[in-house]
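<goal> How does this chain fold?
<sample>
Here is the protein in question

***
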Amino acid sequence: MRCLGVALLLVAAAALADAPPPEELRLIGEHPVEGMVGGNLSGLARCDETLWAVSDREDDRLYRLQTGAEVWQAEVERFEAPPAPAVPLPWGLRMSTWVAGQVRGGGLDFEGLSCDRQGNRYLVSEAKAAVLQLTAHGEANWLALPEAVVRQARASGMLLGFNAMFEGVAVDPAGERLWLAAERNRRGLLVVHRHGASWRCSGGCVLVGEGGSEPAPAQLGGEARPRDFSGLAFHQEKLFTLERQAHRICRRQLSDGAVERCWSFAAEALAEARRYPSAYGQTEALWIDADGAWVGLDNEGQARADGEARPIVWRFAAPQGGWGARR
C-alpha cells in the first residue's frame, strides 16, 4: 500500500509539472485612488453599478469610487458598527489583535467586501472573525454566524495565528449563501447558509483547508512561498480566489472548493515600474464580473518603482472564452 501511495504521488507530481502555465490576464486599466485617508485598500465590490472599497485601517466608513477618469476619487459613506459578537478565539490572540488595532488604527481590520442584489454590503473583520452587514440605507449589524465556523476552522488548522485570519468574503446575489476565506498557515474556504435571521453550516462549515507552499512566479525567482488567499469573489455559481503570493486568480467549485482553472496576472503586476518593496504592494481585493476582474492593491502608503504611492485598482479583461471557459 505504501508503494502504491508513493506511486500515486509521483504521478500527481508529474502531471502538475507537465501542466501548461496559466493564461496571463490582460491589463486594460490602472487607476490610482485619491481620497482614501487611511489608504490600505483591502476590499472591493460592485453593487448596482457602483464600485465600493474598504480600508483595513478605518472602522467607520466605506468608499464610493468615482470611476469616470484615470485617477479615481473616493467618497466617504460613514457608518457606526455596533459592538462585535464574542467568538471562540484564545485570549492571547484576541489581545494581540487589539494591541495592533490600537497602534496602527482599524481595530476591526476589515479585510474583504461583497454585496447582494438588495444592496446589502458585507464586510469581514479579521480582528473579530465576524461579518458586518451594511444595508443600502447605511444600517450596520453583525451577522449571527454560528460559533462552529471558527471552531471548525481552528480544528482544521486555520485561524491559529495573529494576522492570519479571515481575509475574504463572498455572498451570492440572493444573500442566502456566504463564503469566507482564511488567509494562510493554513489557508481555507468556509461556507454558511442563511436560515431566517441566522446562519448555519449545512453539514460542515469547512470546504477546503490546505497548507504548504508553491513556487512564486519566475519574475520573483520561483522560490517557494506559503499558499494564501487574499480575496474572494462569487460569480456565476463559482468561487474565485485571489492568490497573492502566486499572483493569480483561480476558479473553484462551490461544492468543495476544488480548483478548476487559474489565470495569472504576474506579467503585469511584476513589471519593473510596478514593483514595490518586498513587504508591500500586495493584491488584497477582488471583484469578478462578466467583462473582467477588478483587483485592488494595499500598498500601505509605500511608493512603487515609478513613484506612485496611492492605492491602486487594476482592471483586467476577462480571459478568452470568458471566466467559465475550459482549457
Notes: The chain has one domain: 23-317. Residues 16 and 255 are 23 Å apart (CA to CA). Residues 1-17 have pLDDT under 50 and may be disordered.
